[in-house]
Amino acid sequence: MFQFEASNGLEQAVLVGVIRPDQTRWQVDEHLDELAFLADTAGAEIKGRLIQKKAPVDSAFFIGRGKVEELNAYVQEVGAGIIIFDDDLAPVQVKNIERICNCKVIDRSGLILDIFARRAKTREARTQVELAQLRYLLPRLTRQWTHLSRQVGGIGTKGPGETQLEVDRRQIRKRIRHLAEELEKIQREQNIRRKRREDIYKVALIGYTNVGKSTLLNILTESSVFVEDRLFATLDPTVRSAQFSQTRPILLIDTVGFIRKLPHDLIASFRSTLAEAAEADLLVHVIDVSHPVFMEQIHTVLDVLKTLKIDDRPILNVFNKIDKVSEPGLINRLIQDFPNAIPISAARGMFIEKLKKEIISFAESEMVETEIAFNFNQNKIVAKTYEMVRVLERQYLDSQIVLKIRGEKWKVEQIKNLAHQNV
């Protein structure tokens, strides 16, 4: 069943989704709505959608040869030049579908990588994007994509270099190694900068993409960070000082938004960008409660935090856009289910003072002072302790090193666990 939209002269695209046994048609429609938003962000106009109920997935054509031929007829009818699948495709599947439909075929990961390539501004972001793109490209080099040169342009063709699609595997692997080394160098520089901020309480705004994190950062820090109703409007982390605490300096960090089905290579490459969240003392999880599937978005964010191994941080849930909620009683039910959460509207400035007080409360209550004993063979853990917290005093007693430290509770507990596990 196809759905049509009016043409506005942009690159014409058709979206394709698959209903799995554990999914409903409504869920796949919602996923394609998000895919359409991604395509719009990349500069496409959606001409229609094809949804196929398929189990198991066809190894050669993903949705089956017959459905691909039906897709081809529709693509020719509407004059689309690109087909975007909501799921990741194997290189052979892309090659087979392209051969029948005679147009570009990209999957969700390729689309997200393209958007990141367009959004990357800083040296770190550009390095991360190129690294992720080359890792994504490497197994797809057997494809006949001569039409994807940078001179052609369009979605999926924003690449890391003028001739990257023409180089062989050996050259790409060499480039990947170089980029990985460059990224490590950048990360070391970033770690030095973060080290200078160790005495400052760091709050990272995390959440699904387009939930209002940048708007909230602006109102909390009286800044003017770029805000746009687009997915991944914020790519590089933005750090601003908050002036609302009189007792302790606070830094607020706006991080890149998460999204379902985030490409594995992108998560791997963007670990240093998300390291700002890893170094934060408090994670403020911003949630758009006006979105129809915000609960699914919550679980997506928590899954990404677990993948990045930063789910041990204190988390403050913030329910944003309450002014757009039309369902009676929803906010009250959420407060019952999430008793420590704070409902706000960043755009309208509702309950922002309450949020500020809660952040200050976290900042003032999380500091502890204690002594921890280390064996002489635990030098690496001792060095890590110096990186994580302030060491007030160092003593040598018998066969142990005793450090008197001051830092956030979660950091102190982490150090204690490391010391006990590596006795």
Q: CATH superfamily name of the largest domain?
A: P-loop containing nucleotide triphosphate hydrolases
Question: What is the ordering of alpha helices and beta strands?
Answer: EHEHEHEHHHEHEEHHEHEHEHEHEEH
- Known CATH architecture of the largest domain: 3-Layer(aba) Sandwich
User: Which consecutive residue ranges, at least 5 long each, have pLDDT under 50?
Assistant: 1-7, 143-152
Our measurement of the CA-to-CA distance between the termini, rounded to an integer number of angstroms, reads 63 Å
Widest sheet, order of strands: 6-7-5-8-9-10
Tally of individual helices: 14
Largest sheet: 6 strands, mixed
In the CATH hierarchy, what is the class of the largest domain? Answer: Alpha Beta
The beta-strand count equals: 13
Average pLDDT works out at 83
Strand content: 15-25%
The fold-level CATH name of the largest domain is Rossmann fold
The tally of domains stands at 4
Cα radius of gyration in angstroms = 24 Å
| DSSP helix fraction | 40-55%
| Structural shape | globular
Structural class: alpha/beta
